[in-house]
Amino acid sequence: MIFRLAAACAVLLSVSVVFAQERPRIGKPPILPVSQVKKGMKAVAWTVFEGTRPEPVPVEIIGVWKNANGPKADVILGRMGGKAERTNVAGGMSGSPVYVDGKLIGAVALRLSFFSPDAICGITPIENMLEINDLDQSKPPQRAAVEIPGEFLAGTSIPANQSLTLQPIDTPLMMAGAHPEVFPYFNGIFKNMGVQLVQGGSTAALKSTTLAQDWKSSLEPGDTVSMILVSGDINISSGCTVTYNDGSRVLICGHAFLNIGPLNMPMARGEILWTLASSFQPTKVSNATEVVGTFTQDRHLGMLGHLGEKPRMIPVKLTLRSLNVQGGAFKTNTLNFEVMESQKFTPQLMMLGLFNAISGMNEFADETTYRISANISLANGQKLDLHTMQAASEMPIPPSLQSAVWFGDKFNKLFGNAVRMPDVGRVEATIDLIPERRTAAIESAWIPSSEVEAGAEIPVKVFLRPYRGGRVEREIKLKVPAGLTPGNYRIQLSEAAALNSMQSMTPLANRFMELTQTVSLLNQERANNRLYAALVQPRPTVYTEDRTMPNLPSSVLNVMQNGRSASRTLIAAPETAVAEESIPFDYVVSGSHSLRLTVK
Predict the structure, then answer these.
(1) Of the candidates 231, 308, 246, 282, which has an alpha carbon nearest to the alpha carbon of residue 94?
(2) What is the pLDDT, as a whole number, of residue 236?
(3) How far apart are the C-alpha atoms of 539 and 490, rounded to whole Å?
(4) Global pTM?
């Protein structure tokens, strides 16, 4: 009995000491180097369990684990008490500042085990985190994204957490306004990028990245902080805890978030709705609220942000129109959101945003056809004007996902430019949902005569077979150029994919294409809801950068190829189109057909 009373008194004394601590404030705190941290020291961590106000948590220092987080990267081990004994080391606690006698020693950043009854945490020393500021003095320009072979990704995944090793505390991406269909398709993509995508929430306050008026007094040590990837009608964010704030610079997490290095990401305040206690996956359920600055560094031992610095974001407007079979719009839904600018994440976030918008419509169905018109404006004045239709097919990929992949691919090509990063000003897209499968295959074609004079106009009748529909007839008038050399030619009727295939290879053949050339090449892509007719002859066409060089003599082609380096090769097709026409077709056109023609 005496021993129990003594133990209870010791606990009460420990708790009273903790609650006597004054919560940390903005400003440079005194620091206790890791070399002076000793086993048995009594420390206090500050973190938010509910709402916005941090609470003190007693921490008993177990000792310093040498090189546990990499070469010369020691980790301080601690046993958390108080509320953390019930919740365990929860997701969102990353960055919780830890003090010994009012001196900052570091940030709670790691957990040792999921199922241990002890809330054992790993603390990243603050002097290691402060090194991140030195990296921020001279930020290198972002380089283009690196293409990773598909066969490599197919056999690679992020390793599962090991129960007996130190692991960074989870910082999953919380997606608000998400349709359940998003997660089965996109979880694998984001997992291979090093993060987990989960369903979450966000307050109505986070509708833009406009800075809060009171940003100067924001993010005191121990406060919840949010990292924003997408804001608006769709929100994607994650949360950590503020470790350090000297009045302008903020350090958080104590471990990497996206592991990008230099970046530009909105930094926002957050609130905790509840801290879920769990032996397996304890986590804080949080909301992002108002933006107060910008994160500029995402490094191995933490993130660095600057208060009052407005982040760069890409505004996106998606207009979804539900059409009836006759083509009339009976419902319109508009989504506005902003996307973080990142060569690694922007294409994936754009793809996810479009897919989520489509999946959330009540008119969504397996047999729906999607007609998309997109405009992408760049800061240099260039614009992309893009069009496509995506419909169900025998492929095991739904047309909604095909539409999202098509959309994301345009940003992959922009941000994959090896010469210069794009500065995207605005993105707008209109997506029409047509309640039927709109596909048509080219079946046959006919011309009045197989012999014509140069300068004549040829009425080409084309017959197509729509999905579950009767034969459709269209006419394309193809003008034979005046003065064309007499001889044998061919009229080629085809879909867009066949015509785009050669030009789409030019970025692979020339790794140093300028951004302006990349934009020009994207604008030259043919749309798959048009029917194309070309008069071709057996003379090579050369594709280089964004230029098409038709009717090129073989001798000239040889000279050009010999004068180019291995990183700048030429793409050549065996035929040249001497005339080309197309007509709009409110179907996804597929197939091809050829007619022989003699020019007299």
Answers:
(1) 282
(2) 92
(3) 12
(4) 0.87
Q: For 357-407, what is each residue's pLDDT tens digit?
A: 999 888 888 899 999 999 999 998 999 999 999 999 888 889 999 999 999
- The rounded distance, in Å, linking the Cα atoms of 161 and 167 is 7
Helical H segments across 268-380, by residue range: 346-359
State how far the Cα of 323 lies from the Cα of 328, in Å rounded to an integer. 5
Residue 556, pLDDT score: 67
Q: Which DSSP letter does residue 422 get? A: -
Q: What residues are paired with 369 via a beta bridge?
A: 434
Residues 337 and 424 in one domain: yes
Distance CA 79, CA 118 (A): 7
Indicate whether 173 and 306 sit together in one domain: yes
Among candidate residues 434, 451, 483, the one where a domain is terminated: 434
**Please, what sign has the CA dihedral across residues 400, 401, 402, 406?**
positive
- The reported pLDDT for the residue numbered 152 is 34
Q: Which pLDDT does position 470 carry in this prediction?
A: 92
Say whether both 236 and 290 belong to one domain. Answer: yes
Tokens of residue 17, six digits: 């000491």
Contact 251, 243 (CB under 8 A): yes
Q: Which range marks the domain in which residue 459 is found?
A: 439-599
Which residue type occupies 513?
A: M
Structure tokens that stand for 188 in this block: 């694998």
d(CA 58, CA 82): 6
Q: Is residue 148 part of a domain?
A: no
Residue 156's pLDDT band (cuts 50, 70, 90): very low
Distance in angstroms (rounded) separating the CA atoms of residues 282 and 90: 4
Token pair listed for 162 = 């090991």
Judged on CB neighbours under 10 Å (0-12, 13-18, 19+), 75 is buried
Q: How far, rounded to the nearest angstrom, does the alpha carbon of residue 32 sit from its chain's CA centroid? A: 39
H or E segment and range at residue 414? helix 399-415
| Residues shown for the chain | 600
Which residue, chain included where needed, has tokens 């430019």? 417
The answer to whether the beta carbons of residues 266 and 313 sit under 8 Å apart is: yes
On whether both 240 and 325 belong to a single domain, the answer is no
Buried b (16+ CB within 10 A) or exposed e, 147-176: eeeeeeeeeeeeeeeeeeebbbbbbbbbbb
- The domain tally of the chain equals 3
Q: What is the SS3 assignment for 504-564? A: CCHHHHECCCCHHHHHHHHHCCCCCCEEEEEEEECCCEEEECCEEECCCCHHHHHHHHHCC
CATH code (residue 425): 3.10.20
| Within a domain: 1 | no
* Residue 70 within any structural domain of the chain: yes
Q: Which two tokens stand for residue 291?
A: 């933006």
User: Mean pLDDT of all residues in the chain?
Assistant: 87
In a domain, 245, yes or no: yes
- Claim to verify: residue 293 and residue 221 sit in the same structural domain: yes
450 and 364 part of one domain: no
Percent of the chain with pLDDT over 70: 87
